[in-house]
Automatic annotation (TrEMBL):
Native source species: Alteraurantiacibacter lauratis
InterPro entries for this protein: A-glucoronidase_C_sf, GH, Glyco_hydro_67_aGlcAse_N, Glyco_hydro_67_C, Glyco_hydro_67_cat, Hex-like_dom2
Family the entry assigns: Belongs to the glycosyl hydrolase 67 family.
Enzyme class: hydrolase
Protein name: Xylan alpha-1,2-glucuronidase
Length: 678
């Protein structure tokens, strides 16, 4: 079907279109189509697209590839669906694809330019054409006029990656959307069609790399039988621009290789990894590389042999050579360090700056503790100028109410990406030359992410990795328009609701810089009273340090001095409780319950106020959503309503249990005017 211009015979398109209709309606209502619904346009937007009367063309220089075929099929599908009719045989408005423009880089960049009778899509590669196709459809799905499009887009970050914490047995660690989407049992012979839908969703937001298995890895995933399975996925995803990575267990040479050691300096160990890498590349020529969690939470690593993280990472990097990348995680903390978990990763990694091989990336979580509802940016950002650092975010909501609480995470990621490290760059600037990883929230649930609004976090992650300067508001608006309704009245109400949702969670769970107060192990409900766990840093009481006199973690000079790991200008701004933004207060300081807050309230009154505002915000979300029923199909509207009811109840649970506990410690009454507990 290649040539100067391509058009399927009208009858074929019409038949395909009719076949699409009923299932599409059903899918739209169960969320399976994600943001790729291409709901029929209405009003002026429909008239404009009808008048434009699109038809797809591409020039002869465009490479004949599966990727361009996918782009064309997607255009046909999206346009027909939005027009609610098959593309006409005698279409006038050319959507003209030029996918081999030498003036544009082959990294996925593209340009879209509208004119009276054509939209030109220029790209330096077929993948750029695919990305441009999705951008065009995204604009049209929001009602844009094709003739006035003018977009030039390039990926800010080369690596835009999902990390799946999926175990080979189908269980997903910290997964709240059902079982794993990867069917290792039937691969390689049978591949679920869902794998294509998944690739399509990722490509539509620019995600280009996937680590398919949990960082708490099983070594057998490196065996030949799994490489064969992975190769099938790699083949299926390649046209969508996705490279596969494997989480590798550091002790694999012992676990599955029959060697007595996994010491990274042992020649037999090095030879084993080299042979393993060769074996993988023979099956998957564009294999991305290894993701490694080492010497963290009981995982094996180079320190087991008295070696450093750099020794371990460099050994794997040598095995991969120029073919791939080692992504080495910096999420480390030890039960033997009595001082402050906050300071450990920096202490272990920063002295190694400059020692990592060129094809090693160190992957750093957004904050120094662990994916809390709010954390200041990790002090490692900007502190390792000779090391490639990548940001790790968590899309799945381990500490933010799983898939039942609504929390749109773009504002959280925006907060960290825009943070000034004090080393002459923001976190986005430090990480943009490298990349961003998100711990996936996908699962076997029909709606992929466990709830309709959790799809927005997957979407937002991809959009921010592509362009970290995008605002949360832009992302929320485009997502909601594509997913639910493009009606301005709907968007004007749902977007603010999404934008405030994460702050609501912060307020009813861990206000004013509190952190890690969730129930042990599951991390769901409140448990600030827990203080008897063997490892001190797993106890909520380790983090809040509340007693009759006060509350908070002193990380200044008079405390653990973890603050000194930040650049001087940043540390200075957080050194004094008086100059510290209240959102970080108890993260860095221990203050008395009477500590005066900028609001004029005492700390205790402010804390109570924040819990209350968190609860009130959830109630307001439920009210807003109730009013949006006319814009959303009944099925998805009800599903969100039910979750909001759970959240309203559990926000009260968090507030009341937390306040009751603080009162048991400080012996204080609730300030006058506090609403009664539920
Ligand atoms: O957030 C914590 C989780 C663990 C996870 C770990 C990590 C994969 O509670 O489940 O393990 O972080 O990031 O390695």
């Amino acid at each position: 079907m290649r040539g100067k211009s391509w058009k399927a015979p009208f009858a074929v398109v019409a038949a395909a279109f009719l076949a699409l209709l009923p299932s599409q309606t059903a899918q739209a209502e169960d969320g399976y189509d994600l943001w790729l619904r291409y709901a029929p346009l209405e009003g002026a937007a429909l008239e404009r697209l009808q008048a434009f009367n699109p038809v797809v063309h591409f020039d002869s220089a465009t490479p004949d590839s599966e990727t361009t075929d996918i782009a064309i099929a997607e255009l046909e599908r999206g346009l027909a669906s939005m027009l609610a009719r098959p593309l006409a045989d005698d279409g006038q408005g050319k959507i003209a694809l030029h996918c081999a423009d030498p003036a544009l880089p082959a990294d996925g960049s593209f340009r879209l330019a509208g004119a009276a009778d054509a939209v030109t899509l220029l790209a330096g590669s077929d993948l750029g054409c695919l990305y441009g196709t999705y951008a065009l459809l995204r604009e049209l799905a929001q009602g844009a006029d094709p003739r006035s499009l003018n977009i030039a887009s390039a990926p800010a970050m080369p690596l835009r990656m999902l990390n799946h914490w999926d175990n080979p047995d189908g269980h997903v660690e910290r997964g709240y959307a059902g079982r794993s989407i990867f069917d290792w049992w039937h691969l390689p012979q049978r591949m679920d069609e869902r794998m294509i839908d998944y690739a399509r969703a990722n490509a539509s937001i620019g995600i280009n790399a996937v680590a398919v298995n949990n960082v708490n890895a099983r070594a057998f995933m490196l065996e030949a039988r799994y490489i064969e399975k992975l190769a099938r996925l790699a083949d299926a995803w390649r046209p969508y621009g996705i490279r596969v990575f494997l989480s590798a267990r550091f002790s694999a040479p012992r676990d599955i290789g029959g060697l007595p050691t996994a010491d990274p300096l042992d020649p037999a160990v090095r030879a084993w990894w080299k042979a393993k890498a060769d074996e993988i590349y023979a099956a998957i020529p564009d294999f991305g590389g290894f993701l490694v969690k080492a010497n963290s939470e009981g995982q094996p690593g180079p320190q087991d042999y008295g070696r450093t993280h750099a020794d371990g990472a460099n050994m794997l990097a040598e095995a991969l050579g120029e073919r791939g990348t080692v992504i080495w995680r910096a999420f480390v903390y030890s039960e033997f360090d009595e001082t402050d978990r906050h300071a450990q990763a920096y202490a272990e990694f920063v002295p190694l700056d400059g020692q990592f091989a060129e094809n090693v990336i160190v992957q750093v979580k957004n904050g120094a503790i662990d994916f809390q509802p709010r954390e200041p940016f990790h002090p490692m950002f900007g502190a390792m100028p000779h090391t490639r650092l990548m940001l790790e975010a968590q899309i799945t909501k381990e500490y933010l109410g799983f898939a039942s609480h609504l929390a749109f995470l773009a504002p959280m990621w925006e907060e960290v990406l825009r943070a000034d490290t004090g080393h002459g760059a923001t976190v986005a600037e430090v990480t943009s030359p490298v990349g961003m990883a998100g711990v996936a929230n996908t699962g076997s649930d029909r709606n992929w992410s466990g709830s309709d609004f959790d799809q927005a976090n997957w979407y937002a992650f991809g959009r921010l990795a592509w362009d970290p300067t995008l605002s949360s508001e832009t992302i929320a608006r485009e997502w909601a328009a594509q997913t639910f309704s493009r009606a301005p009245a709907f968007l004007d109400s749902v977007v603010p609701m999404m934008l405030g949702s994460r702050e609501a969670v912060v307020n009813y769970m861990t206000p004013l810089g509190l952190a890690h107060l969730m129930g042990t192990g599951h991390h769901y409900g409140p448990a600030p009273w827990v203080c008897d766990l063997e490892r001190p840093e797993w106890n909520p009481c380790y983090y809040h340090r509340a007693d009759a006199n006060g509350i908070g973690f002193d990380r200044t000079e008079s405390g653990t001095n973890a603050l000194a790991q930040y650049a001087p200008a940043i540390a200075a701004q957080w050194a004094d409780p008086a100059s510290t933004d209240p959102i970080w207060l108890l993260w860095f300081h221990r203050v008395s319950w009477d500590h005066p807050m900028p609001s004029g309230r005492s700390l205790w009154a402010e804390l109570v106020h924040r819990y209350d505002s968190g609860v009130a915000a959830v109630d307001a979300m439920a009210d807003s959503w109730a009013n949006l029923a006319p814009f959303v199909d009944a099925r998805r509207h009800r599903a969100v309503t039910e979750n909001l009811a759970i959240q309203a109840n559990e926000a009260r649970w968090w507030r009341d249990a937390s306040l009751a506990y603080w009162q048991s410690v400080n012996g204080r009454e609730l300030p006058a005017g506090t609403p009664a507990p539920a």
